[in-house]
Amino acid sequence: MSGTGVWLAGARGSVATTAVLGALAVRAGLAERTGFVCEVPGFPDAGLPAVSDLVFGGHDLVDVPLLKRAEQLAHAGVVPPGLPARLRDELAAVEADIVTGGADGRTRDPAGTLRRLTDDIRAFRDRHALDRVVVVNVTATEPPTAPRPEHATLAALRRAIDGGTMVLPASACYAYAAFEAGCGHVDFTPSVGARLPALAELARERAVPYAGNDGKTGETLVKAALAPMFAGRNLRVGSWAGTNLLGGGDGANLADPQAAASKLDSKRRLVAETLGYPVDGPLHIDYVADLGEQKTAWDHVTFRGFLGARMTLQFTWQGYDSALAAPLVLDLARLVATAHAAGRAGPLPELAYFFKDPIGATTHDLAAQYDTLCAFAARGCR
Amino acid sequence: MSGTGVWLAGARGSVATTAVLGALAVRAGLAERTGFVCEVPGFPDAGLPAVSDLVFGGHDLVDVPLLKRAEQLAHAGVVPPGLPARLRDELAAVEADIVTGGADGRTRDPAGTLRRLTDDIRAFRDRHALDRVVVVNVTATEPPTAPRPEHATLAALRRAIDGGTMVLPASACYAYAAFEAGCGHVDFTPSVGARLPALAELARERAVPYAGNDGKTGETLVKAALAPMFAGRNLRVGSWAGTNLLGGGDGANLADPQAAASKLDSKRRLVAETLGYPVDGPLHIDYVADLGEQKTAWDHVTFRGFLGARMTLQFTWQGYDSALAAPLVLDLARLVATAHAAGRAGPLPELAYFFKDPIGATTHDLAAQYDTLCAFAARGCR
Amino acid sequence: MSGTGVWLAGARGSVATTAVLGALAVRAGLAERTGFVCEVPGFPDAGLPAVSDLVFGGHDLVDVPLLKRAEQLAHAGVVPPGLPARLRDELAAVEADIVTGGADGRTRDPAGTLRRLTDDIRAFRDRHALDRVVVVNVTATEPPTAPRPEHATLAALRRAIDGGTMVLPASACYAYAAFEAGCGHVDFTPSVGARLPALAELARERAVPYAGNDGKTGETLVKAALAPMFAGRNLRVGSWAGTNLLGGGDGANLADPQAAASKLDSKRRLVAETLGYPVDGPLHIDYVADLGEQKTAWDHVTFRGFLGARMTLQFTWQGYDSALAAPLVLDLARLVATAHAAGRAGPLPELAYFFKDPIGATTHDLAAQYDTLCAFAARGCR
Amino acid sequence: MSGTGVWLAGARGSVATTAVLGALAVRAGLAERTGFVCEVPGFPDAGLPAVSDLVFGGHDLVDVPLLKRAEQLAHAGVVPPGLPARLRDELAAVEADIVTGGADGRTRDPAGTLRRLTDDIRAFRDRHALDRVVVVNVTATEPPTAPRPEHATLAALRRAIDGGTMVLPASACYAYAAFEAGCGHVDFTPSVGARLPALAELARERAVPYAGNDGKTGETLVKAALAPMFAGRNLRVGSWAGTNLLGGGDGANLADPQAAASKLDSKRRLVAETLGYPVDGPLHIDYVADLGEQKTAWDHVTFRGFLGARMTLQFTWQGYDSALAAPLVLDLARLVATAHAAGRAGPLPELAYFFKDPIGATTHDLAAQYDTLCAFAARGCR
């Protein structure tokens, strides 16, 4: 396959900037494949497009130059100090494909807004003569979306839009535009994205695949690795408390309890669903400006063994969210593009390994999700 | 199957005492099934003997009464305070089947010693008219065993023994006696146990199954759950440091650097073998008397993400070794007995899930080991 | 000095029960002096009454027998299993001096309620012919008290009470009754207690000393030891996040965000006041039932060194609140009684070492507070 | 005072390079005073020379340019990326005062070696017309020095040297040269430095002050803050285990168990001396190359409260040794220079606050040491 585009909603955010810079660095031979799931030696060859062949564009509401954003990330320790300057020209080329603007969910002309988003994506595909484009949502987490009757069917949704009522939050606008443009879609955030019946209908109609939600990059990744251990060993978990300290733009956004609610919700389900019984314990997300682009999570688990013996496990995870997320964004875009080419449409539960709250998936067990992913790749993402 | 015996080498140690007390508590309806791998709801029905039907006996060099040992464990917080007294009579009954003595590796009459061990096991089986007995080694960890030519073949081994030279360490004597008596064998310690070519030959000759080594009950369990996460996500582990603080008899024994060497060796392999490259980092086992029966492990992992971002994971595990080990000992005895009944002989690599250094197994990935175990159980341990 | 009474408001709570049981154990020669500040070898001899000579009584709204409460604490690991039964008779003797009832802040007859509380305390003093009684508040933390004009002067307070309006929360009722009965007072909780101008006036009028608030027994103790280290070394603290997980009755009570607000408030001031600049960071108190009587705190501190180098310190404290608090309660009662005998009246800022939010004190530096305490003891609590 | 020189033994090491770069940054207005003990607002004015007025020189066995070393530190995250280049000229100026060579303890001409070291220091003082120079040892930690009779008196030492036998390790050579040149001396390492009777005699003879040993910059600093908390609260410490993971040159050097022995020795004393009883627990220093210039320490403390309740405290410290040490080196040089000017000679126990193993000091209590330091500064370092 050749000619694969990645359209980033939130193209100037930390995750998107790291993904673009990183892909350019790979192309220039300046970066290793660390962090790419599909580049582990022995991972099945799914015929994915090469990282170095990806073409980037996107929407963003702000217009800070990519080079400046990359330099901020270098200052914060996420990417190597000298790298942005060395890729100055390549970043400038991507710059030309980023449209300032996008969905903000408050437009008075919903039909026009959605048409514009769709046109932007189509124009990008045409401009670069791409076979396929995958739209990836890496905008800031939205507050939970209140259910509305217009979300139930595509017909009702279109009636509302044509009638001048914007009933979709921004994340769903990007999914709508992706599907309308005939593109696959990935929601890397906990926002609603494509998770509305009307949008599922649209994806089927346009025969495009999609995946989400909420990239699993830190605390939840570790939980997904550890919870099956307690389950398999029949150790009774009495409580699982988690504190997440985040700096950066993501942290500032999640300081809003409304936005944090979406994230907490997708984080919370995993343990109880893996263990098969409810598990007590607070779960906090807190903004700590001084952490910069880092995030730190502390989890504390109490459990009982044979004859009621009381034991504990605690872990502290300290990482850079963008460095963890960026290669997964690139992997997902390549996997969804390949699935699209192979004729898959609708949700891709086989990609659950990447997500906190995977669409259509039946297990939170990290190892089981990994096996499913490998099988999916081995059969060419069909 | 009815009539399964468990013969414990080291029958008065903390693990054995907890296993016996716990099985008696289960029989009396005083304990839940927490900690038993084979009692998780949904675990395949392998036709195992019931925990409450197991019959116990064993060897121990010391003669402290089981009741007293159980009360020491209650005092240390491993088992509930009132439990030993409530099971006083049942403990006394087991007491009658514990032979004071055993292998100490320094006998002048090796043939006689091995004959006596074998006879003790046979007598126990006959006394209780048991279909089958599994011998489980839960004695203290031995120093590494120097290789000797007499270990290479059964014929050479028997010649040495008959010639009056004791060439087997204590742990191997129990394996020899088990096999001679026609019993399955489990080595729950890092000692050499059955891992000598001569003993493998004997097990084949007598058509008995065996499993080991070194029960995976704490730090290594967590490592086995976490290392595949780093591998799957292609996160480059730069170092993995571990500090293990142990109290109790196990800790005191491992304060001897020679004995600790066996344990460290079996702990160390896992990470590098899972990741496929060597990983730096110290690994300590230290005796801290004040911890009593508790053990605490701290692991610190440095790793790199995309574009070289530096990140860390650390965890602290705080648990009671005996409470973790005891139900596994009972599970293993039941699984090996069932495999024996089903006609299996030789090593049982399907039981790798239980061990730090599994005989004949090919992966350290906890989830893969769990899947293998479930498949083994589902086919009746055949 | 002989004949010192300790009147516990909340006499059947975990802290009070541990204090009473512990003092009886000391008297019976069954306990060491661990945890008593005033019993450290070398601590100045202040002529305190002996722990073994203290006489106990108190109020409590519930009537669970002390022996039962003590056994619950033994079950939870706070006190040794056999101890309550060995002190059965001594506990029963104290039982006779506990009045079921007390202040609940919602009475229709405030004057009558306060008179009854005062009379209970006086009767206890007379019954045992005590020289002096110290009233210690160890009831559950109250929500913050809204300021009222009647709190400003003793005259206004008495007018309100005589007029049938209860303007004092329960904690202040105990302080009022203590002062009216001519007794010293300690508030070991973050509740308002004696911290109202009207009550300060009453304490002066009756010439009685008092101390508070909120015993420093865990996370805040460690913070008070560590914050001066950062200050002295001129390391710039960028954030200090704290998560407190509590089980037990205290935890259940603090699950109420209103009650937690009082506690958080007194916990929060320390770091900024020690460092001299505001410090960012969340501070959580969460109820985790499975912890039983334990509490676990995790603190995460980010700081900068020379040339902006980013560093972190984190600590995890795991303790039994009642075991930490009980000897301090006994120390405080003895110190306040001694100060009372020595003629001190009004607040005792010299006791700041014991409190999170010390009345009248000027530093949160633990070492400075300790020096002040030692000097106070050395001069006979004058 | 004007004209103070700092002569660094090990002038191209990480600590020295950070100290020089940092002082130049302060002079250029590019750095704040973070990390300087003597620059905390409110710290007594002792009339110290300004950081920006210090003049630097030193010995080093290697000849990597300072600018290159500074850039390596920037790459490792110790100092800001752009800083070395901005101070290129200033670093080059210091370069001219660094003599390649020094003491290596294996010379065949001890008298000549010591004369040369002394001459280098004197030449530096003369070249810059400095009032005073302080020699600071920041070379790599040496193995413990075996006692020799020649260390007992200055006469015996001089006889050995003149006789061609080098009986001093490198660290002591620098102290010898410092004293011979009439300079104050600071040993920031655990090496023997000035701690020999013969050298104490020489310092008295030349009327120069000195201080040491082993800068307290991480784990031991935290221990010194926490141990008095346990002591004051009469909490019985049952064990104190520590694991130190170090990268960088210091880590590589301490991977040698002989060198580590010196360091462990000075780390170990603190807890037992503060608490007044022996405390069990392992103490490890391990080299972990992947940590780069960072060090991470994990300490685990078990303690008992009232009635024997078992509790634990653990902390993890993650820092850059050089960033912590550098401002202390500059503080110490200024304090010793001021004491020298004020007429002090011999050891300066008032500087114990800075050291793990303070010469002549009587307490390890951090707060008490801080009070002593402030009093010393307030009286002009007299």
From TrEMBL, chains A, B, C, D:
Q: Which InterPro entries match?
A: Myo-inos-1-P_Synthase, Myo-inos-1-P_Synthase_GAPDH, NAD(P)-bd_dom_sf
* Protein known as: Inositol-3-phosphate synthase
Family membership noted in the UniProt record: Belongs to the myo-inositol 1-phosphate synthase family.
- Describe the location of the Myo-inositol-1-phosphate synthase GAPDH-like domain by residue ranges: 218-322
